Amino acid sequence: MPKLTVQGLGEFEIEPGKRLVKALVEDAGTDQLHACGGQSKCTSCRVNFLAGEPNRITQAEKDTLAVREISDPGVRLSCQITCDDDMTVEIISGLAGSGRNDQGSAVADEMVPDPIWTTK
């Protein structure tokens, strides 16, 4: 099973193929934001990869990052990533200090929109 390490929080074994945003909330117990419900329409679910950043990216994530002018190395949308390999992330977009009332809309088990995979 893939191991997810969340900086300052610990290591968690994650079901292969689980969406990273769901693993962060459900398995690691973080306050990771997901305002749009994990549909790659906003950038509230951003994480910073410290190790194990996937080489593949969905076209939706690529487009959203470009529109929002986010080009920092390692910064990705957790709603568009599946836990297939070991990874280490830093939460950079959590509920605490965000001014939001909640983390966001429910996130589907399956990737939304249907992924069109490309390389980073």
Annotation keywords:
27% strand, 9 strands, five-stranded mixed beta sheet, alpha+beta, 120 residues, Ubiquitin-like (UB roll)
Structure description:
The chain has 120 residues and is α+β, with helices and mostly antiparallel strands. The protein has a single domain, classed as Beta-grasp domain (Ubiquitin-like (UB roll), Roll), CATH 3.10.20. The chain is built from two helices and nine strands, in the order E-E-E-H-E-E-H-E-E-E-E. The longest helix has 9 residues.
Short summary:
The chain has 120 residues and is α+β, with helices and mostly antiparallel strands.
Task: Please give the structural blueprint.
Elements: E1 3-6, E2 10-13, E3 18-19, H1 20-27, E4 46-51, E5 56-58, H2 59-67, E6 75-77, E7 82-83, E8 87-91, E9 117-119
Parallel strand pairs: 1-8
Antiparallel strand pairs: 1-2, 3-7, 4-6, 4-8, 5-9
Mean pLDDT: 96
CATH architecture label = Roll
CATH fold-level assignment: Ubiquitin-like (UB roll)
The run of helices and strands is EEEHEEHEEEE
What is the count of structural domains? 1
Please identify the oligomeric state.
single chain
Overall morphology: globular
The CATH class turns out to be Alpha Beta
Number of strands: 9
Strand order of the largest sheet: 2-1-8-4-6
Number of helices: 2
Percent of residues in beta strands = 25-35%
